[in-house]
Amino acid sequence: MPLYWHLLKVVPSLQIVVHRIVWSALLVSAWLLWKQGRGWLQAALARPRAAWMLALSGLLIAFNWGLYIWAVNAGHVVESSLGYFINPLISVVLGVAFLHERLNRVQWLSVALATLGVAWLTWQLGQPPWIAIGLALSFGLYGLIRKLVAIDAVSGLGVESVYLFLPALAVLLWGETHGSGGFLSGGWGVGIDVLLVIAGALTALPLIGFAFAVRRVPLSVVGLMQYIAPTLQFLLGVLFFNEAFDHDRAVGFGFIWVALAIFASDGLWRSRRQAALATT
């Protein structure tokens, strides 16, 4: 994803976001129309609390996309990866705060270590890592709302896309008529126009694939795989984009990586133990 948005760096971040929303909405709506028929939207909104909660989750995911795209093209890939590293722990804290879930001692230790890592980075940098915190909180709250709404992933994304479509289209058209756009006018080039359209598929297809895969892959495996993306982002930030990663940042990241290793190991051990008990 950072490499893809880097290819679009000549396009203003807001324009990338609205293109991403528009083309994603068209793709997901077409998919749902094909799979579920013309009544898919009415059926989705008929679920309890779905209408306003999916409107809120749509705003959160749009904010998350916008912040991430801006951060990548502004040279903050490493800090963006930090946001997705701490996101699982933010989700755990939100579960405790809003869903009355309970944590064991090992999980609390993980949360404490991650908090120390963020505190260390705040002290060394002179300010909190706002990009990372913004990404983690927006995606964590998004996940919390989607957990509370009894709707499958693809239909939920479809409703969110419908809510965001008209505002995004309005911003896109305004930009095209006021000099900040260049789509199909030669301003950015044919290659950039194609990449903007494909951005919709790049948004929707992984989420659709996840919706199917999560039913077939053990959750313990899914939990571990969620760290692959931020790891790749971090490596790209350091090795490809040549962003700074000094000793002070290494200490802060180290606290968070240890916290994640403890958290993931505990989850894997518990999953295997439950599977063994079920077999017995």
UniProtKB/TrEMBL annotation:
It comes from the Bacteria. It is a multi-pass membrane protein. InterPro entries: EamA_dom, EmrE-like, RarD. SUPFAM superfamilies: Multidrug resistance efflux transporter EmrE. Residues 6-122 form the EamA domain. Keywords: Cell membrane, Membrane, Transmembrane, Transmembrane helix, Transport. The chain crosses the membrane at residues 12-34, 50-70, 82-99, 106-123, 129-145, 157-174, 194-214, 221-241, 253-269. It is found in: Cell membrane. Its main location: membrane. Belongs to the EamA transporter family. This is EamA family transporter RarD. It comes from Lysobacter niastensis. The gene is rarD.
